[in-house]
Write a structure and sequence with these properties.
- The protein is α/β, with parallel strands linked by helices and 307 residues long.
- It has one domain: Alpha/Beta hydrolase fold, catalytic domain (Rossmann fold, 3-Layer(aba) Sandwich).
- It has 13 helices and 8 strands.
- Strand 3, helix 6 and strand 4 form a beta-alpha-beta unit.
- The longest helix has 16 residues.
- The two termini are 33 Å apart.
Amino acid sequence: MERRGLLHAGTALAATALTTTVASPAHAARRRPTFVLVHGANGNGYSFAPLAAELALAGFGAVPVDLPGHGPAANYPASYQSPQDLAAFADAPSPTLAGTALADNADHVAGIVRRAAAHGPVILLGQSMGGATVTLAADRVPGLITRLVYLSAFCCTAFRSVADAFGSPEAAGSLLGDIPPVGDPARTGVLRTNWRAAEVVAPAKAALAADYDEAAFGAVLNGFEPDEAAAVATDDARGDRRRWGRVPRTYVRFTADRAIPLALQDRMIADADAATPGNRFTVHSLRAPHLGPQDAAVLMDVLAGLA
């Protein structure tokens, strides 16, 4: 099951982008797309800060999203702080994420798309487990999305859920299972990781960011949130072919990904194309680990060509 993920994003940046970039009359006149950026498990909008800056500098709108229970609403219990109380941390229910469903994420993102679409075209982007959210958000507002973009992300059509995808033969090479979990999701309602534990660092780097330098990965690691809603990985993540299936879509393959192996990425692309043969993925490939290129400008080169 998806363990943890991945991209992290700042609420202040999101608010600034929505206020200054999306609402700008010049932006509306140019009709340049606004990119709505959706993070994966254990993430928030902060990891999109470098990409959002590149997008804004190129004249696009950029709205990094904090999904429900993430960002300012994330759970950082006292037992997770220093000194840590590991027994309490393993047992404490999450006050913000226990009970959160994939549908809650999709409703939240659909609401943001509605606001952004009032000012021009919207490109909705999801990374990792954020792909499940953008698929169901597109079911809700297909006519308001110019294009869906999946960054090494889950796109479930033949697979019912993210967890089902991880149970497939194509996922056998994933290293996410090497990252030790904390606690029992049946008690806490969440998938929990102690990102501050020494034994987590090496397997997390191998799975998520093998080619990042140590300083860059340290910064990323400190942005991860300890909790992710357990139901998001197990809820039905399949899009409606008549709604999600009619939105143009792009898949950016990360060929060095050791969390969602390339074989699983390709399986999901093929499954989606078979489900909607009249609306197939356009596909781009980058040699990047699960977190994407360390230099956001490399990804920007791909995204700018989609607008």
